[in-house]
Design brief:
4 copies of one chain form a homotetramer.
Chain A: H1 3-25, H2 43-50, E1 58-60, E2 77-82, E3 97-99, E4 101-107, E5 113-115, E6 120-122, E7 125-126, E8 130-131, H3 132-135, E9 136-137, E10 140-141, E11 152-160, H4 161-165, E12 175-176, H5 178-188, E13 198-202, H6 213-218, E14 222-223, H7 225-234, E15 238-241, H8 259-267, E16 271-274, H9 279-283, E17 288-293, E18 303-305, E19 309-311
Parallel strand pairs in A: 11-13, 12-14, 13-15, 15-16
Antiparallel strand pairs in A: 1-19, 2-4, 5-16, 5-18, 7-8, 9-10, 11-17, 17-19
């Protein structure tokens, strides 16, 4: 086989591999599906999950987002407050109206985030085998934009990995795989993880924010490849953690760059939730709760700054 | 009385008037309170409200926010999608990672919004008698920033004013006052509005978006002054509507510029929720429901783009 | 030849074609060159051009840039004015300092612009055969950023195409090629166009701004492919016009998408200047003048909003 | 005199003092004037200044502006580069067009700046006695916006204060007043400073950027109050320095907060130029030169990022 033929053959093989990946990216819910496993969050699921509310205590899972929040470079975020039309202390009308308004500049991927299905792809092919060139427009995604995320009200589960591993924070590079997940479930008495559930890992990593931002950003404990495949096999709707990227960094041996993201988002239609603060839930020894999330519906946005409400 | 003395006397009278307003602005919940009537959303309140979930159907109340959303000038909002580090189709690593990221530029007050207590004041004095100069910093409010909004999980009530008034949309300038609110409650069988409730008006006004943005923005039916005082007397935590500003515009006779905003926010510590899409709730003949809201916790932000989840 | 071999052969041919283009992109000024024909603007050139100042009249060639400026979608630009730290009319210090500050949000490519050499490429290869993946970083170009543009002080020539063609504005789609350029020169008594000159076309097209923005944006008279090659052969440092894109739109038959941009910028290292307002120069019957330009040195910027000063 | 009367009397005195200041703010060039001493830059002035070009060497006086540029908090600036419509390496048309575009977010007051007359006021009264409430609109100044700055082409003078004071950089807090200015002129053989001139101080302070940003930002040598009054008496059009704020910081004893800014801008209609890099001019022993400046004409902008061109 001469060189030209050999290069061509490799190209064909690559194309075949590409096809295999394409097959993996198909949604179980049909060619028009944009919400993946959130299809499992049926009214029955929501109703059943609502029974987890036994005390009425509500928790904010979002952390604050601001100029100082450590973020994946060059992401940043700023709010600027101003008083339009009120120069020199001017007020408006007989009741002397004063008001503040605010400007935002920055990137959605700062602080507590939901990664939509347009965030992560495999060779420019995204969930449900959608090609980036077809939907990733500069003025916003025409598929998978955050406005498509449904109302999420389902069962939430927090797995206390810090408690399990007796380390707080758990060391960066520590992977959570099937055995770890099952051990945490057993320790907490969580009988099963089911279709449409939201699973959150507690690692203590988030406490580094403001104390050691550099360390925070340069690694994290988190979900491993086998663990991601396991959770995907159970049909969860979303997976999150109290860390900037959910998945273990440095990546496991022989695992690609953010391949856990690819497995969850691109191959399985599972949202990723980052910087989810579950400390108070863990302190209160809550394992299962009612999880609600309505991300701001910015049309075509790739990600959302979020603040889910957990209720026990 | 000579001129100098007369001017001084007027200044004193003004100061007295100012004190009267100051007295009104005090929080019932103490000098350090930043959340006003949301203090009424106790675990007991949340637990009771959760019993309203009988079908498990979840509704998104947020509309989409984008370049085309009509907004109070000069507010606007844009999302821009880009592919950092992927020039010329470059992918990352052995699993060919591709990703989209997004930049936001604009104003928080676009689309579905929560008005925090730092939004509206009376002569530069805000809720709980806080002076703007003390907390309205250019880099963010140091009190009343959106990060202070608690986890909201409480009873929601939608009042179908369009059905009551047999007009859809209701004409701009139509005020909803005590009698109207009570008539709507009676018509729907809502027995009472209670402390910590969230009350939303359905007017049909929101359907003008995209059809007649100019009319949409230049007026609206909505809450009148007496109606605001009535709801405040009942201790509601938040009031909203399917319109850009909740309150009736043009303003009622002898009512100040956005005085309903002042009554709710500055004098009573009640959040205002704007552009709340309750159409599907009304179609489903839902009057009472479980209302959850976790606004993105942008530190120091005046307002938030929101998407509350209503569950029946 | 089987399919695999044929595909491979095509790939090889494409690579060869790529090499040909690559050869065209090489700078005459060496592998490290980032400023192209501006190398011709030597002190001797500047000194000679300064002798064109005979009256001392200075002209602004920049138009205004703001929220209303028609621009290539989705580009826009806004300035927002605020008064940091001066809530409620507060002033600073014994001399009661007040101040305004301003925020910018938008895209550099709005209004009067300089297109740097990082703006336009050919199959992701840019001027001096630089590959986009090597220098087009998300945080700014690492080559060809606007900060690299030298101090430009040289001879400027305005060619009154509207006068020549007796049409104002000249109709969109009208191409200026070698014969037109020479006719304009002859009509105005311009003896030659030389190395390091800046050539500006006057078409009257810019007068449509604010009158018919839609027409303004959807086409333009301008430089044709042969005209671009002609000017490049003369060694000009920059070419501009009183239109949004300099080159004729719709493109000439058999000419690529913005191929004139490619010829000037990518193959010849010639800056493009857009929305250059030369009306007053033409009214004053000025053909040659001293041209100075110092674009704001935003590191890594692709383009610059500019306002060159022409002096007669 | 009782308290009320005493307070009233003080208010009256303050009003009188205010009137005195108001008188100072009037422009010599009439009630409609927006450009102050730049009125002195007549064609005769420009023509005469152009004779200073004897070598043809052109200098950029602007420094770079980017994410790392030290700036007055909370000012910052960012450029973000993206490739619209080119996802997955897509090119446009038969000639495979590729292009980069760029987004800006930030504040105009970063890096090399021109302070317009809308930047600095005295108790909310600005140059030519314009009241902020009348022209400082949130969408841009309606007077004194940067679009009003005329084409500036005049005589530039650089005074080597570092050489005079034998210190590089000169220590923060060192004031330049009349005697210092005259000593520098004498040392360099500058016979006079005249109407319409631009005067720049060289202090070496700018070399701290990137080396000691904290020190750079927390003080500076610079123009004192008497020195500002002296330059104003000579009718200069603009004054600048190689420092972030031109004027000496800490302020001189009994001098108000940025009072030198007030004297130059508010009382005398003199532009201030900041972060002007004159090091190369000083190295080349240039004292007088042709100065040209065309700031980007952002409508209603308070300040401009600039890059004047000096030519010897």
């Amino acid at each position: 086989m001469n060189n030209v033929t050999r290069i061509a053959a490799i190209a064909v093989l690559a194309a075949v591999a590409g096809s295999a990946i394409a097959a993996d990216c198909k949604s179980k819910f049909g060619p028009d599906d944009q919400i993946g496993n959130s299809n499992y969050i049926t009214p029955e699921k929501t109703l059943a999950a609502s029974k987890l509310i036994t005390k009425g205590k509500a928790y904010r899972l979002g952390i604050e987002t601001n100029r100082g929040t450590p973020a994946y470079p060059p992401r940043n975020y700023s709010v600027t407050v101003l008083q339009p039309g009120q120069v020199a202390g001017t007020t408006l009308g007989p009741t002397k109206l004063s008001y503040n308004d605010d400007i935002v500049m920055g990137w959605n991927g700062v602080g507590s985030q939901l990664d939509g299905f347009g965030h992560i792809g495999w060779d420019n092919v995204y969930f449900n085998c959608q090609k980036a060139a077809d939907f990733a427009k500069v003025t916003g995604l025409t598929k998978f934009g955050i406005e498509t995320v449904p109302a999420i009200a389902t069962r939430g589960i927090v797995l206390d990995m810090a408690g399990l591993m007796n380390a707080n924070p758990i060391k960066e590079g520590t992977a959570f795989n099937k055995a770890d997940i099952e051990a945490a479930m057993k320790r907490q008495g969580v009988k099963s993880i089911e279709k449409g559930d939201v699973v959150l890992f507690y690692t203590g990593w988030i406490d580094l924010i403001g104390k050691d931002d550099k360390r925070y950003n340069s690694g994290e404990p988190g979900l491993g490849k086998e663990g991601a495949q396991y959770l995907a096999s159970l049909g969860v709707a979303a997976v999150g953690a109290d860390s900037w990227g959910l998945e273990v960094v440095p990546f496991e041996k022989d695992v690609g760059v953010f391949e856990v993201h690819q497995i969850l988002i691109q191959q399985n239609g599972i949202y990723i939730l980052e910087n989810m603060n579950t400390e108070e839930l863990v302190k209160d020894k809550v394992s299962e709760f009612f999880f609600t999330l309505g991300p701001s519906r910015l049309t075509g946005a790739v990600q959302a700054v979020i603040n889910p409400i957990a209720i026990k």
